[in-house]
Structures are given as structure tokens and as C-alpha cells.
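Study this one:
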Amino acid sequence: METEKGKLVRWVEERGFGFIKPESGGADIFIHISALKSMSRSPVVGDVIYYETNLDDNGKLRAINAKIEGVSPVLTVAPIDRKRKTPKSTLPEQRSHGSRNTYRPPYKKSGYRFIPVLFVLAAVAIFSKFANQNGSSQPVLPIAEPEKPIQHFQCQGKVYCSEMGSYEEAVFYLRNCPGTKMDGDNDGIPCEQQF
């Protein structure tokens, strides 16, 4: 197959495909992310792409074995076939033209990385429970919560909720300062809609 050159004119990152405008002219060529599997990054519109063409199952041209100009390929170590003692990369690649391309979006970070931490915490909790049952007669004392810093407020003529910086300040003004208008339903809770 002959290597052709073109410019990427459209790319849909979420779906992993786009179109190349051939340098030689003609209709745009479809390209799937799987054709760029050896590249170290995804393509962007404007990239110069070197590619070969092939007909898909519907008889339409598509780019295969593509490379992005100026982007280095991903260096991978080929796994060794233990039976033949030769790298798998030297074996001929078998392609099934009837198979579907399986594009997978880039790896998204998830909460699974916290699972080992949960196992460690559970193990510590179980260990401490058994340690206390096996002869440790020391009482377990609850951990005291840190006290909130005491905020000192003064009556400074503030009357409305919009002038309050916090719920605590509104409670102070309602209880200690005359003429406030922060408790319309007289239930003792100031600025209910704001805080």
C-alpha cells in the first residue's frame, strides 16, 4: 500500500474519529483512533497525517496505519511468547475485516484507587478491636472535637440579613441588639432563607 499525506480537518474526541483532507485532493478520508494506536497523543485539527487507505465493510475508504507528523510513537516492549521464545511483534498481525473497531475513551480516574485505603482502615479497626478484647483493660477514651473559635460580635447598627456575614452573627444581633429585622416569623431563627 502507498503512504499518503493529508491534513486533519475534523476530529470528534468523544467518539474517537475524524476526517483527513488528502493532499492530492479528492473526498475526505475517514480516520478512527485505532488507526493511530502507536501515537503518544490524540490528533488535533490541523495535524498533518501520514496514512494508508483501505476499504471498510461498506466499501468506503478509511485511513489505516496512520502517523501524526512530528509526534513520536509510543515505545512499548513486546511481550515474549514463552513457547516460541520470540517477541510477538515479529509474528504477522492477523486482522479480521469483519470485526468492529472497539474505541475506548481515555482512562477516567475513579474512586477505585481508595479501595486499598479502606481495606487498611478496616484491618486496623479489626486489629484494635481484638487487641482490646485480648487482655487490654485500658478504657478507650473518645476523641474530643476541637472547639470552634469564639467570635466576638458587637452591635454596630446592622438591621437586615443582607448585612450579616454569618449565621452566628445574625443570632448575636437578634438576641443582643435592638431594632433588628431578621426574624419575620418570630420563631427565634434569624435569616432562615439566607443561611
Helices lie at 115-133, 167-176. The first helix runs from residue 115 to 133. The chain has two helices and seven strands.
